[in-house]
Amino acid sequence: MALEIINPGFLTLLQDYGRYGLQKFGITHGGPMDEHAYLWGNRLLGNDFNAVQLEICLGGFAARFHKSTMVALCGANAQVSLNNQKINMWQTHCVEPGDEIRVDAFSSGLYAYLAIKQGFNVGVQLNSVATVMREKLGGLHQDGQKLVNKENIDYRQHVNEYRGVAEFKTVVPARFLPSYQDEVILRFIPNRSESGCSDQTINDFVNQSFEVSADINRMGYRLQGDAMSSEKKGIISQGISVGTIQLPPAGQPIILMKDRQTVGGYPQLGCLVYQDIGLLSQCRPGAKVTFQAVGLSEVEQEFIAYLQFFGVKL
Amino acid sequence: MVTIHMLWNRSKKFASCLFNDMSTTKDVVLLSENTVVILFEQNISLDIAREVSRYQAAIEQVLSDFIIDMVPSYASIHITFNLRKVRSGDFNHSLKTLFSEIDDRQVEQIEKRLIEIPIYYGDDVGFDLTSVAEKAGLTSQQVINIHAGRIYDVYAMGFAPGFAFLGSVDERIATPRKQSPRKHIPAGSLGIANQQTAIYPSDSPGGWQIIGKTPINLVDYSAKEPTVIKSNCQIKFIPISKQTFIEMGGEI
Fold first, then answer.
1. Judging by DSSP bridges, how do beta strands B113-119 and B233-239 pair with one another?
2. Tag placement on chain A: N or C end, fewer CB within 10 Å?
3. Are strands A244-246 and A254-256 parallel, antiparallel or unpaired?
4. CA-CA distance, B227 to B202, in Å (whole number)?
5. What is the largest CA-CA distance in chain B?
6. B19 pLDDT above the threshold of 50
7. B234 pairs with which residues across the strands?
């Protein structure tokens, strides 16, 4: 036994960075919704950027460790306790055999990531562990299923060499800690091409605020605002980037997330700046969202720095 | 470190052997920090589909070192490139340079494989069959006869594993997508969206008009070839009865 699930929670999925290179077969990227929180967990523990973690949605999660290791929790503000004692998120902790961890109610945000030293040891499917329920791909049993009670997730033992003497913690510096608000401004790169929207429609889009609807999931987040009209009802289906903002004829935008379909036929208002995708992922129904158009040159360097900082290698 | 310029120079010699000098402008849209889409003439036709294939092959030949994902479709090629190896400006420039050397007049002969797919065209599985018929001023049976009456080409793969976009649908029954996508369409459902038709290989949300259902499984990750339909196929739909549909394992 390694990690024994006592309570799987509302929706807990095994994730690595994602399943890349297979979009031409219609297989989506998948991977962590709040990629920034996921990457921090691996960095804190000195893991490879792609090490497998648990993506915990909305809490209710409990598990028992059967081997020594180190863990870190990053993401939504959750009540986390180890053996009934509160522990901080965004830093590493040593755990011993018999220790129990609980991830309870989230005071803000939707996704918290449990990272473990060297990552969880799970078999890949089409080169990745990323769980995509819709595609029945990935996960503990290579069937795209969420974790259930009493499952055992393997990991390699890691012994704290200073056990009994000291525990060194690695902590995310305060300036990097995100704050998941109820009101966010999301940056996007507008699309005015033949498969995009007109200046008028894009203006309507940036000049109003939206509410995150209750209709949100790993495929896409639907927003609610004043209906916008687009000149086109549809475009010829084409490949779509993660973070694409679609405008269906009904006039309410949908933002496509990690489990999105690989092609789409609705006109595109634009695409979210990559980092802001994770920010949106943590917005709950009712959160207020406004959009700010930016140029590619303004954000390209930021994304390069992010990939380099976290050692992302595809 | 291999730079894009070194790679381009090595391949230019190869490319110019295959292609004559001919200027072609295709729109390259910079969608995000690490993605672009190449837009061809925005229509659905066999000629454009062939042009997309030809461009896809050329890009794979010359720029694959910089590409993470490539999604060809009816009239576009979407590319996720490796931002740690090349920036969008340089990648865009390399695409444009490659395009200027592709000869428009070379047309490949593509060998196609015919696949027959059984379909139960019933109201209980084809939720939009009646409304499609009404919009077209036809009976449901007429819609079925028209839809099953032709052989379709695979124009693109995507949307979901094994999802093949087929064309072209007879203009009498070519119906636009629904105003808002349905949140749940069962696996095996056959749909129409304008001149496109396709089967959803697994449960998913979607905006197509659903007119029938197949009992067969279109995706198998453990099989030698994970998808039944591939881009070099042609499809014929064979109408079957509800009885046969259930016998073949279909679910209502």
1. parallel
2. N
3. antiparallel
4. 12
5. 64
6. no
7. B114, B153
In the structure encoding, which two tokens stand for residue A10, read together?
């509302």
Gap from A97 CA to chain B (nearest CA, Å)? 37
Q: For tokens 């999925």, what's the residue? A: A13
B126-174 pLDDT tens trace: 999 999 999 999 999 999 999 999 999 888 888 788 989 898 899 999 9
Is a pLDDT exceeding 80 seen at residue B176?
Answer: yes
pTM of the model: 0.83
Long-range interactions of B185-191: CB distance < 8 A, separation 24+: B185/B210, B186/B125, B186/B213, B186/B251, B188/B213, B188/B214, B188/B215, B188/B216, B188/B218, B188/B250, B188/B251, B189/B125, B189/B213, B190/B119, B190/B121, B190/B126, B190/B214, B190/B237, B191/B128
Please compute the mean of the pLDDT values over residues A228-250 and round it to a whole number: 93
User: Which residues are paired to A188 by β-bridges?
Assistant: A272, A293
Q: pLDDT tens-digit profile of A49-71?
A: 999 999 999 999 999 999 999 99
* Cβ atoms of residues B74 and A26 within 8 Å: no
Give whole-number Cα distances, B6 to A69, A73, B62, in Å: 46, 44, 11
Burial class (CB in 10 A: 0-12, 13-18, 19+), A217: middle
User: How many angstroms separate the CA of residue A246 from the nearest CA in chain B?
Assistant: 12
Residues of A whose CB is below 8 A from B158: 23-24, 26, 237, 239, 261-263
Which of these, B206, B163, B149, B198, lies nearest to B182 by C-alpha position? B206
What's the pLDDT score for residue B205?
87
What is the number of other CB atoms lying within 10 angstroms of the CB of residue A83?
12
Question: Does the beta-carbon distance from B159 to A250 stay under 8 Å?
Answer: no
- Whether residue B92 contacts residue B36, with contact meaning beta carbons closer than 8 Å, is answered with yes
- The secondary structure of A192-250, three-state, reads CCCCCCCHHHHHHHHCCCEEEEEEECCCEEEEECCCCCCCCCCCCCEECCCCEEECCCC
Contact call for A274 and B32, based on CB within 8 A: yes
Is the Cβ–Cβ distance between B246 and B211 less than 8 Å? no
Facing A21 at nearest CB: one of B29, B69, B161:
B69
Q: Please classify residue A161 by burial: count the beta carbons closer than 10 Å to its beta carbon, then call 0-12 exposed, 13-18 middle and 19+ buried.
A: exposed
Torsion of CA A83, A153, A262, A75, to 10 degrees: 20
The beta-carbon neighbor of B33 closest among A237, A249, A296 is: A296
Contacts of B43 in chain A (CB under 8 A): 236
Q: What are phi and psi of A248, to 5 degrees?
A: -70, 165
The answer to whether residue A296 scores a pLDDT higher than 50 is yes
**pLDDT above 70 as % of chain A:** 98
Q: What is the C-alpha to C-alpha distance for residues A58 and B109, in angstroms, rounded to an integer?
A: 54
First and final CA of chain B: distance in angstroms? 57
Q: Kindly determine whether residue A25 and residue B157, on different chains, have CB atoms separated by under 8 Å.
A: yes
Phi, psi of B209 (to 5 degrees): -85, 120
Instruction: Give the pLDDT band (50/70/90) at residue B92.
Output: very high
Position with higher pLDDT, A289 vs B204: A289
pLDDT of residue B23: 34
What pLDDT is stored for residue A166 in this prediction? 66
Q: Which of A20, A21, A194 sits opposite B39 (nearest CB)?
A: A194
